[in-house]
């Protein structure tokens, strides 16, 4: 059962607001028996005024984390707020938004101050900015000052606000934002008893080719709730809410320089069960890393060669053991993008400079034409599904982007017992090098030869495709793995 604790310096600081049983003074909180109160279902909102290192407010967050409680702000956030360089690093991503707001004429004058209450603010036109600040540095009450220098808006200062420093109009906004932020914590007792765990599924509603379609998402929700897991759909705008959950399931295409990776890292830090975990994202999203990893461990893969910008002057030497046609790949391409078929040295000399604009290294591999690729889904070291993805009609890849519209080939899904044993063996060997999460291994079979093309860290699980054989059991298997891991974490929490 989730419990909320609102920590203030003195109970009198809460006088402008409705009385709450969740309220506790900092002195009382610090005096609690840590062993008796250790509980990862407890959510702590730290509203102390002095949050400097080793001051009372700092210790509230520190002891809350030591007790395995979920606290806002975390010690990590407090440390970042204490150093301007760390703030700048965390908030560099807001610069494009500031440019956009300036271009639209939203920002006027030479400076402005924005107060943020759990990611909300008074000014509707600045709501996205407030949300972005909260997502990057989750803190209940923040004040940000922005200044225009040489016609460019920059963050000049960011600091916490004391609860007692709020004005009358701001008190109402704070109370509303707190209530909205804590909605999941303050669920009705019936809802609390109904579900043992909370799981968030990260999606992008605007993504054209998401890893799971709407039908699959509905089935995940139903399967989770049958197992006692309350499943909620979230987006990147909910990064500040991650501590409310016990697990994160990423159903959005992952990239390293992207909020999917940052949210996976944050969720892991908060103690959530995470699929895709950050390590899997790191290892799978870069084709060059995967090429080296498979080669080092002698997992069968296409013959290939890494190509550096400086290698264009010595191609004969680099390609001595490869024959055309070849396939040239950027490290982080997905859905057949960033992959070019090379038929001659002239084509290589023409295409490589274009791809080198986005990466210092490229991967050049032998071209292995097949009618289909095997996709073996692996979860927790076990085969989950087996599909054939066929090449787009008249094209050599599964996805054809050449016409301006994305076309894909068909599919068939099979019982794993129907898959050639060497295909399954290679897939399991490859995923063992990555981790124990959810993976989709793409393989080609040419006669007796089987090679691993790539390992995907968040493979497609679509209703009507990968679930054709298992149907609802596929979604239950995924949720069962989450349940097992959440139970295991709960068992190992200090009492």
- How far the N terminus sits from the C terminus, by CA atoms, comes to 15 Å
Helical/strand content category: alpha/beta
Q: Mind telling me which CATH architecture of the largest domain this is?
A: 2-Layer Sandwich
Helix content: 25-40%
Strand order of the largest sheet: 20-17-16-21-22
Q: Work out the number of β strands.
A: 22
User: And the CATH topology of the largest domain?
Assistant: D-amino Acid Aminotransferase, Chain A, domain 1
Tell me the major beta sheet: 5 strands, antiparallel
Number of separate helices? 17
**What is the C-level CATH assignment of the largest domain?**
Alpha Beta
Shape call:
globular
> Compute the gyration radius: what is it?
26 Å
Average pLDDT, all residues: 82
Strand content: 15-25%
CATH homologous superfamily grouping of the largest domain: ATP-grasp fold, B domain
Number of domains in the coordinates?
5
Q: Regions with pLDDT < 50 over 5+ consecutive residues? A: 184-193
């Amino acid at each position: 059962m989730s419990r909320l604790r609102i920590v203030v310096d003195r109970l009198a600081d809460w006088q402008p607001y409705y009385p709450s049983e969740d309220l506790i003074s900092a002195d009382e909180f610090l005096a609690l028996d840590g062993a008796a109160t250790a509980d990862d279902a407890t959510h702590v909102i730290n509203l102390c005024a002095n949050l400097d290192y080793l001051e009372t407010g700092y210790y509230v967050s520190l002891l809350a984390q030591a007790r395995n409680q979920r606290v806002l702000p975390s010690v990590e956030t407090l440390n970042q707020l204490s150093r301007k360089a760390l703030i700048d690093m965390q908030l560099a991503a807001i610069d494009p938004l500031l440019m956009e707001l300036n271009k639209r004429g939203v920002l006027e004058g030479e400076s402005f101050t924005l107060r943020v209450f759990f990611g909300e603010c008074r000014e509707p036109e600045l709501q996205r900015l407030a949300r972005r600040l909260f997502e990057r540095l989750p803190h209940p009450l923040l004040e940000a000052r922005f200044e225009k220098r040489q016609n460019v808006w920059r963050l000049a200062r960011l600091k916490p606000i004391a609860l007692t420093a709020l004005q009358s109009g701001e008190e109402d906004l704070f109370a509303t934002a707190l209530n909205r932020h804590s909605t999941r914590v303050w669920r009705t007792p019936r809802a609390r008893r109904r579900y043992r765990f909370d799981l968030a599924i990260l999606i992008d509603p605007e993504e054209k080719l998401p890893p799971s379609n709407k039908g699959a998402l509905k089935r995940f929700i139903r399967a989770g709730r049958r197992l006692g897991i309350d499943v909620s759909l979230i987006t990147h705008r909910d990064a500040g809410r991650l501590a409310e959950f016990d697990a994160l399931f990423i159903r959005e295409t992952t990239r390293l320089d992207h909020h999917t990776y940052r949210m996976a890292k944050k969720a892991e830090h908060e103690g959530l069960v995470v699929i895709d975990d950050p390590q899997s994202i790191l290892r799978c999203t870069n084709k060059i890393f995967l090429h080296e990893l498979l080669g080092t461990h002698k997992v069968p893969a296409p013959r290939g060669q890494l190509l550096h910008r400086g290698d264009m002057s010595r191609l004969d030497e680099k390609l001595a053991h490869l024959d055309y046609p070849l396939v040239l790949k950027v490290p982080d391409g997905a859905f057949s993008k960033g992959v070019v078929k090379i038929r001659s040295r002239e084509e290589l000399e023409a295409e490589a400079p274009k791809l080198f604009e986005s990466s210092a290294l490229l991967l050049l591999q032998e071209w292995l034409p097949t009618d289909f690729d095997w996709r073996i889904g692996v979860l927790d070291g076990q085969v989950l599904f087996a599909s054939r993805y066929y090449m787009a009609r008249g094209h050599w890849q599964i996805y054809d982007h050449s016409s301006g519209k994305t076309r894909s080939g068909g599919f068939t899904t099979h019982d794993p017992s129907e898959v050639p044993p060497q295909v399954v063996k290679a897939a399991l060997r490859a995923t063992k090098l990555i981790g124990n999460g959810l993976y989709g291994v793409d393989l080609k079979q040419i006669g007796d030869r089987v090679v691993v093309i790539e390992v995907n860290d968040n493979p497609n699980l679509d209703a009507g495709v990968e679930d054709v054989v298992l149907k609802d059991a596929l979604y239950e298997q995924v949720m069962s793995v989450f349940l097992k891991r959440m139970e295991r974490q709960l068992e190992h929490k200090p009492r």
